[in-house]
Amino acid sequence: MARQVNSQRNQEEAVIDLAWPNEAWSDVTKEIFHQLNAGTENGDWTRHPGYLRTGERRLYCRNISEQGKGFEYAIFINKREQRATCVCQFGPYLEGPPSHVHGGAVATMLDTVMGTCAYNVLEGFHLTANLNINYKKPVRLGSTAIFLAKVDKQENRKAYLSAYVTSADGSTTLCDATSLFVQLSQEQMEKAKKYLPQDSHND
Ligand SMILES: CCCCCCCCCCCCCCCC(=O)SCCNC(=O)CCNC(=O)[C@H](O)C(C)(C)COP(=O)(O)OP(=O)(O)OC[C@H]1O[C@@H](n2cnc3c(N)ncnc32)[C@H](O)[C@@H]1OP(=O)(O)O
């Protein structure tokens, strides 16, 4: 059910919101998505739009355009509680150990979920300064996992986040992680402005 979002930027580049179930999603992934999406009804949670840009640049975890082959995910944000929850299904192009997900693919989703959390709940634009991951169990290729991230503390420009990854039924912890995100200074933001999308489409 990806939704075309008009982009004022330039005509040949479409911006498509992929953070919706599609036919490549398993019933488990869809079920968890609908549970998380139900949390948006009373406004506590918001679904973070996951845009595929079909132009030159693409968000790394949205760059495998064959449906179901890469990262299939949706991220939900609770701004008041400074938390993010993500349901992610790992496609067959993400293999590391045979039939299991590459550790770098899991790290990508941890960086993205914590980065999206920081982006939505904190002031200013943050970059990852440090990311530490403990891999507790291998993640089966094709399986669905849940990522739970939160902001633990802020000190000046530093934001400390933690996250853990569970199996779809929540019974098994697959990973846990901590990170440090640093808010860009005014001067750094000025320099970064030329790289930011001109319209409101993020991710
Ligand atoms: C408009 C909408 C468009 C986009 C809408 C997006 C929507 C949402 C999608 C997000 C999805 C992707 C999210 C992925 C997020 C990435 O993947 S970001 C890419 C990977 N990260 C990088 O490339 C960052 C590279 N590093 C840097 O640029 C610089 O080191 C930093 C991080 C900006 C910090 O440098 P700096 O500004 O010079 O600051 P610096 O004084 O060095 O450090 C500040 C403080 O942090 C501490 N610190 C810095 N590094 C460390 C460290 N490694 N360990 C411990 N302490 C540290 C310093 O000690 C210092 O502490 P205090 O002295 O203040 O106590």
From TrEMBL:
User: Would the keyword Protein transport be found if you checked this record's keyword annotation?
Assistant: no
The record's catalysed reaction(s) read:
dodecanoyl-CoA + H2O = dodecanoate + CoA + H(+); (9Z)-octadecenoyl-CoA + H2O = (9Z)-octadecenoate + CoA + H(+); tetradecanoyl-CoA + H2O = tetradecanoate + CoA + H(+); hexadecanoyl-CoA + H2O = hexadecanoate + CoA + H(+)
Q: Indicate where this protein resides in the cell.
A: Cell projection, Ruffle membrane; Cytoplasm; Mitochondrion inner membrane; Mitochondrion intermembrane space
Q: How does it sit in the membrane?
A: Peripheral membrane protein
Gene3D superfamilies of this UniProt entry?
Hotdog Thioesterase
Keywords annotated in UniProt: Apoptosis, Cell membrane, Cell projection, Cytoplasm, Fatty acid metabolism, Hydrolase, Lipid metabolism, Membrane, Mitochondrion, Mitochondrion inner membrane, Transit peptide
* InterPro entries referenced in this protein's UniProt entry, alphabetically: HotDog_dom_sf, THEM4/THEM5_acyl-CoA_thioest, Thioestr_dom
Could you say which enzyme class this protein belongs to? Answer: hydrolase
The record, for Pfam families, names: 4HBT
Against CDD domains, the record matches this protein to: PaaI_thioesterase
Q: Name one GO biological process term.
A: apoptotic process
Q: Name one GO cellular component term.
A: mitochondrial intermembrane space
The GO terms this record gives for MF are:
hydrolase activity
- Residue intervals of the Thioesterase domain: 100-171
UniProt EC number: 3.1.2.2
UniProt record similarity statement:
Belongs to the THEM4/THEM5 thioesterase family.
Q: What is this protein called?
A: Acyl-coenzyme A thioesterase THEM4
Taxonomy of the source species: Eukaryota, Metazoa, Chordata, Cephalochordata, Leptocardii
UniProt lists the gene as: LOC118412648
